[in-house]
Amino acid sequence: MLLPLLSLCLLSPAPTAQAEPTGSIASELAGRVQAALAIVPAALPGAVAPEAPQDLRPEGHHRELEEQLAALIDELIAKDPTLFNKIRTEGDRIRTLPTHEARVAAVQAGYPRLEADLNRSLAQGRLSPEGAARWAALRAQTQAALADGTLFDWALFAGQTFDNRVQGLLAKGTTILDPERRLPEKKAEYMRLSKRVHDALAVPGNSTTLKPAQLDKVFTAVGKEFGIRPEFLKYMAKTESGLRQAVPSNPAAVGIMQIESVHKDAYAGARNVANDTITNIVYGGLLRAQTDRAMANRFLEAGLAPPTSARVVEFLGDLAYNRGPGLLKYVAQNAAQQAIDVNTFAEYIGGRGGSYTLVDGGRSIVVIPGPGTGIDQTGGNSVLERSSEAVGRVAFSQALTAGLGDRNGDGRVDHLDVWLTRGIRYLSEPKL
Question: What is the DSSP string of 4-20?
């Protein structure tokens, strides 16, 4: 939702003098942005010029434009949220108009009022000189593409302000889930992220033999992009693959993040999740971010506010990464039926008012059910146990069954034991 919200603030038939920044830094940036925008058709008097086909846009210009748009969006969100919300409301209204011509007319009619608000924001110092330079360079060029609804598809990596907010709240033990978050889900988009990480690490070709220090840098870069703690991404990789970059745990998944083969498009192309560790981590980070978005939607659909506890969000997200996001529907529905506190991990296994203890040196768990819940000491009838049954049991191999063990003492090895194993490891590592 971030990108359409900005559309009106970048439209102007003619820049006004008071919005033009002065000074060498702003001038230099404006020139750089203007050069990046040379590929965008200018609006002609009395008509809207067609947009150039995306496959004809030079990659360097494309990336520069994307980055400048993302920076401007982020600054508006952070520095003047009231104005941003006003732009969002007007942008949403215009997007509902039935024809291209109607949207063009609405943009032209509504811009002067919003331009005055932007100029006021600049004069009051809410936007930086760099932000003013970006606006001045972008606004005169974007009318055609905005009216066509395509320009902001380029800026799908906008939202660093959101990601930084997630990181800050994680450090405080809370997080936020955005049910409408935009993510780089098309292959060209997440592969551009992969290339940027490759370039930053000076890894020119495909590699499944990155050194530990390089891996840490990849986890940091990808975590920052998706608003996921790098330590937690690394924990997930350690759980999935033991940080092995090229050894599949089963024929259906591959790589350090164990990307399943059902994601066929991710396996295609000269650089893909099967032959490149950086791409594998990028795609794993994308799947994890998609899981957070799905979590928000499933809890809202069940009539619950999504969890805000970082450890609960990370734990439930880890389970869904392992079993698939369809799990989250059952988790949310059972949480609503049992009226648990969605921010208290123990209640997902012990019910409302329940808890648990770890025994056998942390290898097993004993559930202490909440009063009147009907849950037993193995967690039977709990949110996690019901959700485990709802998505269906998996027949584990004898070797995996022996290695996993019956964690909750119910006499069988099933997905609840998988999840408790992952949870016990996670809860026993306080740095995560």
Answer: HHTGGGG--SS--GGG-
Burial of 206 (0-12, 13-18, 19+ CB in 10 A): middle
Alpha-carbon span 204 to 215, nearest angstrom: 15
The conformational region for residue 124 under phi > 0 = left, psi -120 to 50 = alpha, else beta, is alpha
pLDDT in tens, 250-279: 668 899 999 998 999 999 999 999 999 999
- Strands 364-368 and 355-359 come out as antiparallel
Q: Judge whether 352 and 370 are in contact, CB under 8 Å.
A: yes
Residue with tokens 């584990």: 396
Query: Of the candidates 10, 2, 3, which has an alpha carbon nearest to the alpha carbon of residue 144?
Result: 10
In the three-class reduction of DSSP (H, G, I as helix; E, B as strand; rest coil), residue 263 is classed as coil
Grouping H, G, I as helix, E, B as strand and the rest as coil, residue 201 is helix
The secondary structure of residue 205, as a DSSP letter, is S
Give 34's Cβ-side CA count (13 Å radius).
10
* pLDDT band, residue 6 (cuts 50/70/90): very low
pLDDT at 4: 35
CA-closest candidate to residue 418, choices 340, 315, 289: 315
Which parts of 324-397 fold into alpha helices (H)? Answer: 327-338, 345-350, 383-390
- Alpha helix (H) residue ranges in 149-264: 160-171, 187-201, 212-226, 230-241
State how far the Cα of 424 lies from the Cα of 404, in Å rounded to an integer: 12
Query: ∠ at Cα 289 (392, 341), nearest 5°?
Result: 65
Residue 132 corresponds to which tokens in the numbers above? 């003013």
Q: How far apart are CA 109 and CA 103, in angstroms?
A: 10
Phi-psi region of 242 (alpha: psi -120 to 50; beta: other; left: phi over 0): left
The single-letter code of the amino acid at 13 is P
- Structure letter (DSSP) for residue 40: S
pLDDT > 90? residue 349 = yes
Strand partners, 44: 47
* Pick from 157, 423, 175, 153: nearest CA to 291: 175
Residue 375: which of 407, 345, 338 has the closest Cα? 338
| Owner of token pair 């400048």 | 68
